[in-house]
C-alpha cells in the first residue's frame, strides 16, 4: 500500500529546539508551540514562513438522502448558498474576508445547472462537475466506480492548481443539504460503529428526524456490506461526488507536502478517508475546530487530533477552519519573532 511521506523529522527537531530556546518559560506557549513546530516541519523551514496565502475551496453537491427527510432544510438551499458564496455574502465569506483567506467555490455535484450565470462564472464554477446530485445511499450507490475515480481526480487537480498559485495552507469547505448523513456514514464505515453513535443534528433536526437519519445510515451500511473495508469503495457506496472530490483534494495536499487545516464533519470524514487510502496523509493535517457532530469528534479521536477551537460551531462551509487561521498565524509569529533566551542582555 502506498504511504504518504511524513513532514521532515529533522526540521521538526530543529523547530522544537528553537521553541525550547525562545525567551519564554519552557512550555509557556502551550499548544501554540506544538502548532508552530508542526507548521515549520511541514514547510521544511525554521523559523517558519508567515502564512500569507491561505486558500479555501468549497466543494458543493447535492445528496439523494435530502429527499428522504434527513435535513431541516430543502435541497434547493444548496444552489442558493452557492450563489451566496459567489456574492461573497455567506458566513464563511465574512470570516475569510476578516482573516485574509481566498475563497473558491466549485459545483462538483449540485442538482441545479446555474445556466443563468455568465459564461465565465459558469465555466469556473462547473469546471469539475461530476454529476447533478449523488445517489440516496440507503437505496443505491452514491456514485459509480468511474465517477468516484473522476471525483478523486478532480479534487487532486484542484489541489494542484491551488498549490501552483502559491497556497501555503489549504482548507476544504462543504455545501450540500443532507451532507451530514453520508459523511456520518463514511465515519461509521471507517470506525466500525453503528449509526446511533455517529449521527448528529446537522442543520438542527428534531429527535424524530435524528432517528430517521440513523435508520438511513444503518440501511446504507448494511447495503454497502464488506465494501466498507475499502476506502474508495466506501466513497462510491456511501459518499458523494463532492465528498470524493474533497478526499482527492486533501490527499493531494498531503502528497505535495502542503499543510491543511481541517473544518467540521465533512472535512474530517474526508481526511479520515484520505488517510485510509494513503496512510500518513493525516500527518499533514491539523484540526481547526470541534463541530457539534459526534462523528467529527470520533474521527478526530481516531486521527489523534485535538481541535484548536471549540465554539459550538455547526455551520460547515470551512468556517471553523477559517476562524482558526489567526491561531495558526499566531503560532508562526511566536516561533519566528520572539528573541532567544540566550540573546537577552542580563
Ligand atoms: C442556509 C444554510 C447555510 C449552510 N451552510 C452550510 N450548511 C451546512 O448544512 C448542511 C448540512 O446539514 P444537514 O445534513 O442537516 O442538511 C450542509 O449544506 C452544510 O454545508 C448550511 C445549511 C443551511 C440551511
Ligand atoms: O460539522 C459541520 O461542519 C457541520 C455541522 C452541521 C451542518 N453543517 C456542517
TrEMBL record:
One of its GO terms (biological process) is cobalamin biosynthetic process. The gene is cobU. The keyword ATP-binding does not apply. Belongs to the CobT family. The active site is at residue 317. Pathway: Nucleoside biosynthesis; alpha-ribazole biosynthesis; alpha-ribazole from 5,6-dimethylbenzimidazole: step 1/2. NCBIfam families: cobT_DBIPRT, PRK00105.1. Catalyzes the synthesis of alpha-ribazole-5'-phosphate from nicotinate mononucleotide (NAMN) and 5,6-dimethylbenzimidazole (DMB). It is an enzyme of class 2 (transferase). This is Nicotinate-nucleotide--dimethylbenzimidazole phosphoribosyltransferase. GO terms for molecular function: nicotinate-nucleotide-dimethylbenzimidazole phosphoribosyltransferase activity. It catalyses: 5,6-dimethylbenzimidazole + nicotinate beta-D-ribonucleotide = alpha-ribazole 5'-phosphate + nicotinate + H(+). Its EC number is 2.4.2.21.
